[in-house]
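Because showing beats explaining, we let one protein speak, sequence and backbone structure tokens together, and leave readers to judge.
___
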Amino acid sequence: MSFWTILGGLASALVALFVALIGWRWQLIGKRQTELAEEALLAFARAAEGLRLVRSPITLTGELAALREELKVPLDKRVPGEDFRTALWRLAKQRDSFAELKKVQVLCKYHFGQPAFDALGELFKARHQIWVAGTMGASAREENWDATPDNRQLMVKWQNTIWQGAADPDEIEMMVSAAEAKLEAQLKPYLLAEAAFMPLFLRWQAGRNWLTDRLFRRAKAD
């Protein structure tokens, strides 16, 4: 076996190894992006559903009892600004889902770019608007709600923010739905990437096997 034959075989083996490492890296990155895209959509769905629960106009007896107990108010006595305080109480229950959403949002910025980051950020904007409306409504004195047209207009605006369907169109729901559509448009290519990459991976695998077999045969012949 000549020196050049050995050198050629070694070079071919190194090329095969390099191609294998590149292919493995592409596959690993593609798989992680697919997984992250799925995580982002699920986190968005959980947080969006949480906001819809916060804004539900149906108030359960158990919620009122828990709220009054937390505020140390007798169960048979109405809390001032109760509707707004109920929305705030519900909103506090969504901390975990939004903490998860924030983590996913940061990762999406580096994997998918600013548009995906911004789409997820729309839910935080919607949550902030609900929090502001709930806080302002809860702190306002009920006897002053109808004191002036401006006061009444503010109260209606805050109520429309905390209650789903109170206004037509519902600006918060429109914001959430638009953000969902943008996020899906941004992440759909990554959800399909793994399936699209599979034929390429199979061709690369076949090529690698062919090259390995050829090197083996050549070495055996020599």
In short: The chain is about 80% helix and 0% strand. Residues 95 and 132 are 16 Å apart (CA to CA).
